[in-house]
Amino acid sequence: MNSTIPDENVVRIAVDLACRAPSVHNSQPWQWTYADGQLDLYTEHGRVLASTDPSGRQLVVSCGAALNHLQTALTALRWAADVQRVPDGPRSGHLATIRFRHDARPQSHDFDLLAAIRHRHSDRRPFGPVSVKTPLPAALDDVVRRQDVHLTVLRQEARPALARATETTAAARKYDSAYQAELHWWAGHSTAQGGIPAEALATAENRDRVDIGRRFPAGRDAGATTETDHSTVLVLSTATDGRGEWLRAGEALSAVLLEATVGGLSTCPLTHMTELRQSREIIRELLPDRGFPQALIRVGTTEKKSAPRQTPRRPVESVLSVGRRRVPR
């Protein structure tokens, strides 16, 4: 085996696992190309959510999550990744170039993270609280700091502000027909190409018990674990606000979700509170450094009930091109 060029099958396995990453509305807005021992990550422009995400920020955050999933998978496969981020500048859809070294030495925790990629899912039901028995993983600060991203654990006193940010977003979106059409296109049904099936969306009763969630269509994922949501909310923020920061925020998002999953916690990413300027400013006021909030994560515990259905993923053949390099856009 070449010490710098992984076998094509290794790349396929790693990309397939990378694409288990969460993405806004499960839109999976990524494309990969592998040629001459180099893997490149691009945005998939046709999967931009024009009403939900007109700036493309959540698209890039989603791709960043996939990039971190990829690195996690490669480590378990004994490959290290050297990543060049945004190699063609901040206006390009070319988000990363990955080259390889066959010198990774995975530890047992790396295999736990690999298993978490397969088992992680977004749970939109109410959560029980983080506790001494199921605490937040001690490693969260470290894994986030590696991406130059700041992690803030919000106190329960911040809950009314979070609810206000949610209400602000919901009020602005209520009569936005383009947004509503887009939301209902992606959520409540799914195809092999993406979307959120009804079985992965909370029932109306459970949805109404989470005061800080996006107002998705009612689904069929029953089995609430508590009367109201008692989750802990984490905020990922950056010092500046550009495409490179969005990408790193997505990498940090992935790292937090996987660590929490290994720790036995349930998670649900929240991005609706950062979509509009007004609601994003409410969240920014909660941060000690007044950074730019990129994503929030609801974290908590659930009883041993059936997990929500995992959302479908595009076949690896539709997201990975082998042997030909894309022309950057």
UniProtKB/TrEMBL annotation:
InterPro entries: Nitroreductase-like (IPR000415), Nitroreductase/BluB (IPR050627). It comes from Rhodococcus wratislaviensis. Residues 300-329 are annotated as: Disordered. The lineage of its organism: Bacteria, Bacillati, Actinomycetota, Actinomycetes, Mycobacteriales. GO terms for molecular function: oxidoreductase activity. Coiled coil: none annotated. This is Uncharacterized protein. NCBIfam families: Rv3131_FMN_oxido. It comes from the Bacteria.
